[in-house]
Design a protein that fits this description.
- The chain has about 450 residues and is an alpha/beta fold.
- It has three domains: about 200 residues, Nitrogenase molybdenum iron protein domain (Rossmann fold, 3-Layer(aba) Sandwich); about 150 residues, Nitrogenase molybdenum iron protein domain (Rossmann fold, 3-Layer(aba) Sandwich); about 55 residues, no CATH class.
- About 45% of the residues lie in helices and about 15% in strands.
- It has 18 helices and 15 strands.
- A six-stranded mixed sheet has the order 1-12-11-10-13-14, with helices on both faces. The protein has a six-stranded mixed sheet with strand order 2-7-6-5-8-9, with helices on both faces.
- Helix 1 packs across helix 2, helix 2 runs antiparallel to helix 7 and helix 3 crosses helix 6.
- Belongs to the histidinol dehydrogenase family.
- It holds the Pfam family Histidinol_dh.
- Catalyzes the sequential NAD-dependent oxidations of L-histidinol to L-histidinaldehyde and then to L-histidine.
Length: about 450
């Protein structure tokens, strides 16, 4: 295989910074919240955010929205319109159905919304308005009855833009509360915060670990790590576009992997040169530059087929195709969170406004799962009804044989009972019961 790495990410050394035992810290917070409820939530919010947890009133929500420029509110509504249209199309693709397997035997499937969902909207470095669209709005389109939404304060203040996005997306209650204490409060419940059935939304390492530890007690959307971008480029790709789009995702944080796979050494080297130049004037260069330096790969391959094969090995969260025939990737690739086809399409559109969901699998999870979508908020359940006596009896005979092949006598007898009732079969165990004292008394 012709793979030539012009740049290979330098993993930070274990000694470069103090290592936190994230799992133990998170477990301690969860156990404390479980035991002490609101008092524990308040304690950790004060410790980590210097903030007293607050459920916003309608007046406070209205004030937050009123504090924003009209253009910001209009843009939130426009982005949410796109998310809503796509989510509604996803829901429309999921059909309830009923099929008559044989005369009188009906099997059916229903998609029932989760009753209560918690949506975590990260804050920290940036007010991530778009995460409100992706989690809250998608849940409401699915039919979730009650969405509890939480986001941390930013610099000790209510993040007005995030609050507006949460409210316009349909949140039923909004709390200014962040970190693992917010995750624990929603998952475990407290005196003032009702326990939810499902948690959705991205977050930092502590939030992700909290979801991991609570999974099973409640449902979660997926385990999502730091943002990833992979660009597949041919010799016709514009290196300036490659560089710009790589840095668009690298700025998420210092731990966001970036990858360029190209058939052209010229494109690769020029893209690297431009990235170095653009970092000089990028306000978020401290984050983007760290990601690119420590976790950035640039690979030259012999062919696009090899590029697609290598891209599937990375199984990146975001894959951007900058080639002459971008739709070829839809047929050649199988492992990605979301794919962005052609120069007119960029990953940032997916992050912010185009309508597809930006909560996506990372760390090669795209090999086995997709991202957040309407279906994650629905429970696909089945039902069955046998109305025909003959059919029930024949199923009883089959059930008896199949169950005894597995040594499940109790299962078999449920089938025997129907076979005797509706087909007149005779079974020794039923005769023994009918001739017993209990059986005689019943008759």
């Amino acid at each position: 295989m012709g793979r030539h790495y012009l740049k290979k990410g330098e993993q930070p050394s274990a000694s470069s910074s103090p290592q936190l035992d994230v799992a133990s810290i998170v477990k301690g917070v969860i156990d404390d919240v479980r035991q002490n409820g609101d008092a524990a939530v308040s304690k950790y919010s004060q410790k980590f955010d210097k903030w007293e947890p607050k459920k916003l009133s309608q007046k406070e929500i209205d004030e937050a929205i009123a504090a924003l420029p009209k253009q910001v509110v209009d843009d939130i509504k426009e982005a949410q319109k796109n998310v809503r249209i796509f989510a509604e199309a996803q829901k429309e693709s999921l059909k309830d159905f009923e099929v008559e397997m044989q005369p009188g035997v009906f099997l059916g499937q229903k998609n029932i919304p989760i009753n209560t969902t918690g949506a975590y909207i990260p804050g920290g470095r940036y007010p991530l308005l778009a995460s409100a669209h992706m989690t809250i709005l998608t849940a409401k389109v699915a039919g979730v009855k009650h969405v509890t939404a939480m986001t941390p304060p930013i610099a000790g203040k209510i993040p007005n833009g995030t609050v507006a996005a949460m409210h316009l997306a349909g949140a039923d209650e909004i709390h200014i509360l962040g970190g693992v204490q917010a995750i624990a409060a929603m998952a475990c419940g407290t005196e003032t915060i009702k326990k939810v059935d499902f948690l959705a939304g991205p977050g930092n390492a502590f939030v992700a670990e909290g979801k991991k530890q609570l999974y099973g007690e409640i449902g979660i959307d997926l385990f999502a790590g730091p943002t990833e971008i992979l660009v597949v480029a041919d010799e016709h790709a514009d290196p300036f576009t490659v560089a710009t789009d790589i840095l668009s995702q690298a700025e998420h944080g210092p731990d966001s992997p970036t990858t360029i796979i190209t058939t052209s050494e010229r494109v690769a080297r020029k893209s690297m040169e431009i990235i170095d130049e653009l970092l000089k004037g990028l306000p978020t260069a401290a984050l983007a530059g760290t990601s690119y330096k420590t976790l950035g790969d640039v690979v030259v391959v012999d062919s696009l087929d090899e590029a697609y094969k290598l891209a599937d090995e990375y199984a990146a969260e975001h894959v951007q195709i900058l080639t002459q025939r971008p739709r070829e990737a839809l047929e050649k690739m199988t492992a990605y969170g979301a794919i962005f086809l052609g120069e007119k399409t960029c990953v940032s559109y997916g992050d912010k406004c185009i309508g597809t969901n930006h909560v996506l699998p990372t760390k090669k999870a795209a090999k086995y799962t997709g991202g957040l979508w309407v279906g994650k908020f629905l429970r696909t359940v089945t039902y069955q009804e046998v109305k025909n006596e003959k059919a029930s009896g024949e199923l009883g005979r089959l059930c008896g044989r199949a169950s005894r092949a597995e040594n499940f006598e109790g299962h078999a007898r449920s089938g025997d009972l129907r076979a005797q009732k509706y087909l007149g079969d005779k079974y020794e165990w039923i005769k023994d019961y009918e001739t017993s004292e209990v059986g005689k008394a019943r008759m």
